[in-house]
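Notes continue from the previous slide.

Worked example: a multi-chain complex. Inputs as given:
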Amino acid sequence: MVAMRDGMVRGIGLALAVGYATFIAWLYIQQPQSAAEVTGGFSASIGSYRIDPQAFEDGVQFFRRDQFVEARTAFERADPARQDARTQFYVAYTYYRQGWGRFYQDDELFAQGLEAVNRAIARAPGGRIRVDDPGLQMRSGEELKAELEAGLRRDASDFNPARLLGRRK
Amino acid sequence: MTATREAIALPLVFLTVALFGGLRIADRVALRPPPLFALVLSVLLLGLLVRCGALAAGRLVHGSRSRLANLNGLVVVLAAFLASAQAFNVATPESGAPRVLFNLVFLILLANTIAASPDRVRVLRSLLVIFGSAFIVKFIVLSALSHPAEGTVTRALQVLFEGVTLGSVTQDVFHPATGYIAFGTLMLYLFGLVLLPAADRGGLKPAATYRTSLNTNREENKLEE
């Protein structure tokens, strides 16, 4: 009886330790920023994570009216765990449009945009994200990422006067 | 050692240390894995613990134990290794000259302690002093030097200090919670070390026990006389 109890304790302990170690490794890989991201990440890993569709729609409406800060607040409400690729794509796009300027790009906003689009690509199945929104000129993660990276790069093309004729995408 | 302590308490304690040892809270929350040098120090520390008898590896993994018990023992050793690495990670400054200096001092202290071959109690006391001192220097002294000063004079002195040291001493500023979590983590780690199964030293007695046995022998001799 004692041996059986001993074996049970050892078995439970082993399972607990392996589970806890896996959880720790997952945390170190995912680097979540809040408790919502931890729980959302878990839900996403078992495929049960859902965004708030109403908040997402609100975010898209704000985005179309160029109210980028409001749009991000709504997207944050829709996807608090930052696990939905499409929402994160829109978040990245808000940073791009807000940071775009005819004379210069806002590096800080572009850097945040790049972070968001990287997150979107990482969350998308197979790393491929495509958003079919007619209001967007860049509909894939690759295009948006390239545009944000180009905005952050410093090279001779920054002094090309033709840049002034460029249009926000 | 009970099965509960070996299979549940020790792994949970050490894994918790491994989790929180890398936690840094600033404007973002970051979980930093142990650097390579911390892994080297961790190996040395485990060697020291085995040598001084604070960790009896034979009581954790042995041919006479069942497979499940050996697995539990292996988990304890691995968790203790990771926890030690993260304990060094949390106690070492993040950058610059202090980081290099701390790593060097840790290495020398561990090598020196291994060479001295002290007993379990002395090693545990020594580790308390090592980690305690490192904590004070990192989270109190260096933090105070790196934290943005409020007064004009203090700010001027800080700028002067940074100029003299070429900015190699000042560290990233963390949220105060980081220090509290680091303190708890180090205490938990030392508690875990105390819980480890100790070796039965037999003839090799620690100094205090040796003195007691000498006194007992003297009393026995007197009675014989």
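Summary box: The two ends of chain B are 42 Å apart (CA to CA). The interface with chain A takes residues 3-4, 6-8, 11-12, 15, 18-19, 22, 28-31, 33, 66, 68-69, 71-72, 75, 79 of chain B (CB under 8 Å).
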